[in-house]
User: Which sequence fits this backbone?
């Protein structure tokens, strides 16, 4: 019955993007969710959530803590981080903690991994991202969106995996905005005459999905890798980065809890899911719906090699050679 209901609602809603991505889509799909998927205990599991101090990341942290996971929220602002942890620790479960990290800064990434300590990290949620108005470059010379949303997170994951040797599941929080753009490596890396923050953001979000796919192929059963998009969600970052969009769509936007639902599901469930797949509202989706947005094998390989090079990884991590 659940699968039948999913098919019906998807056929009705998918062509209607505002209804599908917004709150109406979630409310119509949610009755088909199987509550047994989250009837689990995460006791003894250490879960790191980047961008976990507000919005989708914070909602996910609350839910995972209720499942008794040890949650570590990662963010750039210590004041916000400490406030988030204080609120999280009012929720039953293991004690939450905050680790400061600017994912566009390699030194900050390296320090954050050291701050995580010698205990293993079991699951990692790549949720942090930025959408700047203007082009800027990091100390390593990388365009800031590319560095913060893709290169830095991959370096962070690599160092965690190297030190912990027990990272078993990774979830990338992408965006429905990626549907409209084909991957262009020059645009992705900021090699443009005219910078557009929304386009740069969408490029990184499409690349995240490709990275999740490749990691599944590279690591096999050793590391489960997923990507998803949360729909259109009312978060502080959406309000500040896309004020016009926020004002026009506010009545239809999902709550952070609704946007976080599939993040929580992918992070916590024991249900058999296909590693490398892309999800929306607990259902696998095709990430290349718009004609002309498919990514060739050659471009994929160039992407993986570029990220590894730009992340200054000491060995081949996801590329084929």
Assistant:
């Amino acid at each position: 019955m659940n699968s039948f209901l999913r098919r019906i609602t998807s056929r009705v809603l998918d062509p209607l993007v505002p209804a599908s991505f917004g709150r109406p889509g979630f409310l119509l799909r949610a009755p088909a969710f199987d509550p047994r998927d989250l009837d689990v205990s995460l006791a003894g599991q250490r879960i790191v959530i980047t961008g976990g101090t507000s919005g989708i990341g914070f909602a996910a942290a609350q839910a995972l803590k209720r499942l008794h996971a040890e949650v570590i929220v990662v963010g750039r602002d210590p004041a916000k981080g400490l406030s988030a942890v204080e609120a999280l620790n009012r929720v039953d479960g293991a004690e939450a903690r905050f680790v400061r990290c600017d994912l566009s800064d390699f030194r900050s990434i390296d320090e954050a991994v050291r701050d995580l300590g010698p205990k293993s990290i079991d699951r990692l949620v790549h949720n942090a991202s930025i959408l700047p108005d203007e082009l800027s470059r990091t100390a390593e010379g990388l365009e800031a969106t590319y560095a913060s949303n893709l290169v830095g997170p991959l370096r962070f994951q690599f160092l965690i995996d190297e030190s912990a040797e027990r990272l078993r599941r990774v979830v990338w929080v992408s965006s429905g905005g990626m549907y409209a753009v084909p991957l262009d490596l020059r645009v992705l890396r900021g090699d443009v005459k005219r910078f557009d923050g929304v386009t740069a953001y969408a490029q990184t979000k499409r690349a995240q999905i490709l990275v999740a796919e490749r990691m599944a192929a590279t690591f096999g059963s050793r590391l489960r890798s997923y990507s998803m998009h949360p729909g259109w969600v009312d978060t502080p970052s959406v309000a500040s980065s896309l004020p016009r969009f926020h004002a026009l769509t506010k009545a239809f936007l999902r709550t952070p809890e609704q946007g976080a639902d599939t993040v929580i599901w992918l992070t916590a469930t024991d249900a058999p899911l296909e590693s490398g797949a892309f999800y929306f509202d607990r259902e696998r989706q095709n990430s290349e719906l718009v004609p002309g947005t498919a990514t060739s094998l050659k471009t994929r390989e160039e992407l993986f090699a570029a990220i590894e090079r730009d992340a200054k990884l000491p060995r081949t991590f996801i590329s084929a050679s």
